[in-house]
Amino acid sequence: MPTIDSLPPLRDVITTHGLSAKKALGQNFLLDLNLTAKIARQAGDLSGMDVLEIGPGPGGLTRGLLAEGARRVLAVEKDARCLPALAEIAAVYPGRLEVVQGDALALNPLEQLTPPIAICANLPYNVGTELLVRWLTPSAWPPVWDRLTLMFQKEVAERIVAKPGSKAYGRLAVLAQWRCDVRIAMHLPPEAFTPPPKVSSAVVQLRALPAPRFEADPKVLERVVAAGFNQRRKMLRASLKGLSPAIEDHLTAVGIPPTERAEQISVEGFCALARQLAIP
Ligand code: SAM
Fold first, then answer.
1. Do 243 and 157 reside in the same domain of the chain?
2. What are the phi and psi torsion angles at 95 (to 5°)?
3. How confident is the model over 56-80, as pLDDT tens digits?
4. Backbone dihedral region of 52: left (phi > 0), alpha (psi from -120 to 50 degrees) or beta?
5. Ligand 1 center from residue 251 Cα (angstroms)
6. 56 CA closest ligand 1 atom index
7. pLDDT of residue 131
């Protein structure tokens, strides 16, 4: 039986399996196993947890997650060329790595896992935000997952952790911070990847809170936040006009000056407004 020491370096894996990076699949690989181990450690203690990884590619992070003691890793990869490389890893960790070939946007892999669940991935840039929004908006809270440890372009990472009053503050920040503790865990320069992307990257950790930070109906909150930030340069009395003819009164009732703009409103303020607007 192969052992972990017998797994080849990732550069050899790329050559052996002809894994030339495809831009359309967002393929910027991490080939330094020390780095992938460090990212896996950011996910916290994985022993006794099922882990979902999206886009394992040649499997650098996958190796890290398994070495960190994940009970089971389910890895969803769109590119069939990666499957033989991932099969080599599966052989070293019998029964602990399952690889599903397919588009993560078209599947619901969380259904196949048993809590406690962690999600950890170096996400393809073109589907990363969409996947995050899906994980943040399940039909019920708390979600099935405990924490997300995800690599994004730095600019997206900054949008997730942004505070009111900053340019990066928007829908993603409110959505994430309403129901999670969020932090940037690591910064990575372009040279950490092969091939290097044009921009820097960052690993973000999101820990699900047992209950939302402030009470609000998710659908109403989502509508308020979307309307506010769709026209972020406008004052709220204008950008939210479509939500209620009496929007100025509602804003005043919760202590928000109608002349404020969405980027100045805290998560707590948005929730207060959502509660106010939900009153029949
Ligand atoms: N995890 C590897 C690493 O860190 O080296 C690869 C990361 S690379 C940024 C993104 C990976 O996601 C690629 O392997 C790509 O083939 C895969 N991918 C792209 N779109 C996908 C999708 N819709 N569903 C699943 N995997 C996808």
1. no
2. 75, 5
3. 999 999 999 999 999 999 999 999 9
4. beta
5. 43
6. 1
7. 97
